[in-house]
Amino acid sequence: MRRWRWILIVVIALAPLACGRGAPPDREEVWRGFLTWLETAPLDTDPVRAYLAQLRRDGASPAEVERQSAVITDFMSERPEAVELFFDRVYAEPVSADSLGGFSTEPSAFLAEAVHDVSPGTALDVGMGQGRNAVFLAQQGWDVTGFDISSEALRAARANAEHAGVTLRTVKASYETFVFGDGQWDLIVLAFAESRHFAVLAITDESPEQVRHFLIQNAQPMGSF
Ligand SMILES: C[S@@+](CC[C@H](N)C(=O)[O-])C[C@H]1O[C@@H](n2cnc3c(N)ncnc32)[C@H](O)[C@@H]1O
User: Is the domain of 182 the same as that of 122?
Assistant: First the structure.
């Protein structure tokens, strides 16, 4: 009878392992866990850091937190769906200087100065967000296309353009999938467009000089950037 009791105890103790419940999540599960959390978590300017803090609070070991951090960092650059989800949530409400991270609704002063005295042509706004720069350029007579991975950003950009009485071409695409074309743009705007996600940077080794070269190639001869 005693022997049976011990066997029963051992079986109960090992059951979670046998069912896989005790095993740490694999890489796909780690990523899905992060995405699921991101859908409803309070917005934070650094969602990965906030998620790792949550894991610690939930009792994950330092080694497990470090492992998940590495997985999420890897996937963040390969899979833009987390960025899309994050910015869809950010732009679901009108954003302003008071919003998370502080979003200017004014056009970039640097851009305004750069295009001052430049004859309008075709302009591309990369990661256009709510279109503050795209709308400004359209108001100056530029033929503007903007793209963004976030549908909510594009919706806000179109609403802002309508409000300003101008038209924009908006495209839902990521840095990695947008077809920049060849010599198609007189002006390419990158304002707070996170360069580490650029496919072009992946092939140019992230050297600012090479990025500059890429942009010159993709803008019209004598174009501005
Ligand atoms: C900080 S906001 C800047 C928006 C705008 N350029 C401005 O200056 O107001 C960054 C924008 O880049 C977009 N973005 C981030 N990663 C992207 C990606 N991989 N492909 C396309 N857009 C992306 C976001 O959705 C967001 O709208």
Answer: yes
- Domain residues for the domain of 141 are 109-224
Pocket test residue of 105, 132, 149 for ligand 1, highest count of atoms within 8 A of CB: 149
What are the pLDDT digits (tens) for 185-220?
Answer: 999 998 888 655 444 444 444 455 655 666 655 555
Ligand 1 atom at minimum distance from 86 CA: 25
User: Hey, how many other C-beta atoms are within 10 angstroms of the C-beta on 35?
Assistant: 16
Ligand 1 center to 59 CA (angstroms):
34
Q: What percent of the chain has pLDDT over 90?
A: 58
Helices then strands, counting H and E runs in the chain, come out as 10, 5
The pLDDT of residue 101 is 76
The residue whose C-alpha atom lies closest to atom 8 belonging to ligand 1 is: 191
Number of domains in the chain: 2
Domain assignment present for residue 127? The answer is yes
Residue linked to tokens 């010159």: 216
Report how far residue 82's alpha carbon sits from residue 38's, in angstroms, rounded to the nearest whole number: 8
- 3-class secondary structure, 17: helix
Give the model confidence (pLDDT) of 99-127 as tens digits: 877 788 899 998 999 999 999 999 999 99
- The kind and range of the H/E element at 131 are none
With CA atoms as reference, report the closest residue to 36 among 74, 67, 75, 82.
82
Residues whose CB falls within 8 Å of the CB of residue 200, separated by 6 or more in sequence, listed in order: 175, 211, 214
